[in-house]
Amino acid sequence: MTVQQSGAEPRAAGMKDVAAAAGVSLGTVSNVLNRPDRVSPATRAKVEAAMAELRFVRNESARQLRAGRSRVLAYVMLDGSNPFFTDVAAGMEDAADEGDLSLFLCNSAHQPSREEAYLGRLEQQRVQGILITPVDPDAPLLREIARRGTPVVVVDRTPDGTEHCSVAVDDVYGGEIAVRHLIEQGHDRIAFIGNHTTVGQVRDRRQGALRALQAAGLGPDHLVDLTTTALTVADGRGAGERLAGLPAAIRPTAAFCANDLVALGLLQTCATLRMRVPEDLAIVGYDDIEFAAAAAVPLTSVRQPRRRLGRTAAELLLAETTETSHEHRQVVFTPELVVRTSTLR
Amino acid sequence: MTVQQSGAEPRAAGMKDVAAAAGVSLGTVSNVLNRPDRVSPATRAKVEAAMAELRFVRNESARQLRAGRSRVLAYVMLDGSNPFFTDVAAGMEDAADEGDLSLFLCNSAHQPSREEAYLGRLEQQRVQGILITPVDPDAPLLREIARRGTPVVVVDRTPDGTEHCSVAVDDVYGGEIAVRHLIEQGHDRIAFIGNHTTVGQVRDRRQGALRALQAAGLGPDHLVDLTTTALTVADGRGAGERLAGLPAAIRPTAAFCANDLVALGLLQTCATLRMRVPEDLAIVGYDDIEFAAAAAVPLTSVRQPRRRLGRTAAELLLAETTETSHEHRQVVFTPELVVRTSTLR
DNA sequence: CAAAGGGATTGAAAGGTTTCACAAACCTGG
DNA sequence: CCAGGTTTGTGAAACCTTTCAATCCCTTTG
């Protein structure tokens, strides 16, 4: 039962070798692997011994080839360094685990070319399905892939058509509750910080902000736009400086940031410039990433059910591969406001 | 050239179908795919047209089966929600891209069972190699996998033996420069916050801290241990409260945190308790994650060349699969101190 | 005691690609 | 116009597993 490990490895052992070593047929080895109950305990033991002896490792390629599909899900994330997406991925993992599937993560890092490359490879791998937060939710490629037979679920974006399942969060509502809260805290001149001209999500959040103002009888001029190019900490810092530069008469007393990173940047500028939060400036972020609560002044933020989002997306995907007749579903979650020190005077 | 999309999909088209449609042999289709220069432009065009027409998608399983190995690298990360690891992964992606390989990310989330499951699946997939930051760098499983033929590179840990390539950062040195800096700033009573009893890395950092003290002629009693269970923001908060509770006479004036998350937690407690940073307490973190610079008081931190780490790891892996005779290499990077406001009085 | 039934095992086919030795067609220059 | 070389194209084998109908052997039943 001892094994030599010296010398050039002869060649990885396959089921055929196992069968030979155990003195049974190939089919029996397969049965041990796939339907152990169909095999007598004695033979099973023999086969298992042989497998151990030969260090047998199942060849998934061959399996897949035969079976036609794999036991792998993939999530193509928009930004692997954004904690939001890693949390979403964690939710997917939960669901994948239950279905005895592997989840592979791919990071497109906002680059369409990278996204495309990953999608191509995943399709070639015949993964069971693709979860994706796409750079462009309406890219035709996604539809093509779905039409060619690999289920695609769009995560945290809502594509135009109804060609995929999708899960998203109601961003208009999120913007609304954020700003409603600020109004309730007595603010009536509120900065909106983000790139709403570029990104659909951000546009929605701003839309919600306007709706909250309107509901309070305040016109759109009560929202002061500080437009950024992206949603990074640096953008937040920059916006903070611009905000601090405004004459006191028209300077907002509160800021609604399109994203927690921006809010953290803003918070940092406030610390630098000795503006007190929330006394001089109340801040609401968006996403409620772990670092929002961990900030020096814990940040009020709009929380999206991230893990839930991921889990649901994965479940929709599994449903699509299981169900005989599948109707694409668009699930929309409702975000919730988490109030912390940054808005409580 | 138009295509019907209605009806039950007949069955994905394979190279055989393409060959038939183009009126050439199977081998020619393969040549178009793999050695286009061996095929006359005319036939190539015909074949490519047929591929487009039939929406042909290469079957990677079959390819792999034939080729014996895949075009995929995998990184099994210890903690997908820790920005440190996602940055490392980004570096790997750079290297993988250049080698025209895909990088799949797996998140073990500190769970040995999950790690094991992923490793098993990856081995079965016959991935080209496995990059891993293991829960336990000395787990025998890693060695077995390597012996069975899948190269393994250990990232950010240094395994006992020399059975794998590995890349790591000199944690002793990192601890040393952190504390040396604090000493230079005039501190001589320094808190060490972390779980050095559990985690090797943290032990090393503490080791370095002691070395710096010694070099300055200060005994180990000048290091005040505040031991945590893990390295989260919450742990940092807790340690901060304990620290604040110490009598002023023995309370450290500076803290070296095993990790930026802990430092952020500590910073938060300081804000809550109105302790000024750095005046009342200087803070050094470790890792220099993005949020370290983004904190209200920008955090001095020990930066590891994360991206570089990942890139090098991937390159070692590729070298191992390429080289005829391979010698395992242990690469150790040197960290660097990034000084920011949190230690500058 | 024969036949039926059932559990265990077998053998061969299939799945889509790559590779490689080989055949066919074409071209060069003598 | 042919020998020899080059360029294109072909066909079959191999990769490793799963599946399924067929076989075998043993037990049970009538």
From TrEMBL, chains A, B:
SUPFAM superfamilies: lambda repressor-like DNA-binding domains, Periplasmic binding protein-like I
Iron-sulfur listed as a keyword: no
Annotated HTH lacI-type domain residues: 13-67
Superkingdom classification of source: Bacteria
Alphabetical keyword list: DNA-binding, Transcription, Transcription regulation
InterPro entries reported in the protein's UniProt record: HTH_LacI, LacI/GalR-like_sensor, Lambda_DNA-bd_dom_sf, Peripla_BP_I
Listed CDD domains: HTH_LacI, PBP1_LacI-like
GO molecular function ontology, one term from the record: DNA binding
Protein name: LacI family DNA-binding transcriptional regulator
